[in-house]
Write a structure and sequence with these properties.
Layout (H helix, E strand, L loop, with lengths): L3 E7 L4 E4 L11 H11 L4 E5 H7 L13 H12 L1 E5 L11 E4 L4 H10 L4 E4 L1 H9 L5 E6 L7 E3 L9 E8 L5 E7 L1
Helix pairs in contact: 1-3
């Protein structure tokens, strides 16, 4: 059975989206970006909400950017090769290949997808991930923690959920970003 992975850049105080501004520096570092690409290359399906999809659809054409460095081209190719499921009640259509639109998040459908998939899946964005966490679907958590405290926004972990996790990997980058991977116990 495939795993469902939740990964995002987070602030030091635990926010995946800042109320104002960005989450701080580190993710644009080529070393970090290459690591992210290598870590998630095996994913077969991305689960997105509308806003995260609208951010990530950039990768549909990023390989064609003039002077795109090799790590950007590789990440774009990997993203294009994966299936995408977008959950939205407002999006009228999708603009990337290998992408389907669903109107509601159905935990049982995601369980079936995990059971039938040969490759791991990723849920992206704190709002959609909160639904997957509440349904007990997330198997691993990958946090890329910046050195910034942002004071508010959308939390990486939703309120009201208790999780007991096992730290299985960690890495510090020269940019100050800290990667930690946890497995659900």
């Amino acid at each position: 059975m495939a795993k469902l992975v939740y990964s995002m850049i987070t602030s030091l105080d635990g926010y995946a989206e800042a109320a104002e501004g960005d989450l701080g520096s580190g993710a644009e570092d080529p070393e970090v970006h290459t690591f992210i690409g290598d870590t998630f290359r095996h994913l077969g399906t991305y689960l997105y909400g509308r806003r995260m999809y609208e951010t990530m659809v950039f990768w549909e054409t990023a390989h064609a950017l003039p002077d795109a460095p090799p790590h950007i081209v590789q990440y774009a190719r990997d993203w294009q090769a994966a299936d995408k499921v977008v959950y939205s009640t407002t999006l009228e259509s999708v603009s990337s290949a290998r992408t389907r639109l669903e109107r509601t998040f159905d935990p049982d459908a995601v369980r079936r997808l995990k059971a039938e998939s040969d490759h791991d899946l990723s849920v992206d964005g704190p709002t959609l991930a909160a639904q997957a966490i509440a349904a007990g679907l997330v198997d691993e958590y990958h946090l890329f923690t910046t050195t910034s405290v942002v004071g508010g926004g959308k939390r990486f972990f939703p309120d009201g959920v208790r999780l007991d996790l096992e730290l299985v990997e960690e890495r510090a980058f020269g940019s100050g970003l800290l990667y930690t991977r946890y497995r659900t116990r």
